[in-house]
Design a protein that fits this description.
Elements: H1 2-5, H2 13-18, H3 24-38
Organism: Pseudolycoriella hygida
Protein name: Smoothelin
Length: 42
């Protein structure tokens, strides 16, 4: 999804699963980039 939508793949599923508690800053940045990409799509 990331590359097709023009969003940088900032998170890796394996990294998220391995980590006891994912870094909230990374998650927030990723969600923010998705929001910015699609906020003007109708």
């Amino acid at each position: 999804m990331d590359e097709k939508a023009g969003i940088a793949p900032l998170l890796d599923v394996e990294d998220m699963v391995i980590m006891k508690k994912p870094d909230w800053k990374c998650v927030f940045t990723y969600v923010q980039s998705i929001h910015r990409r699609f906020r003007n799509v109708e």
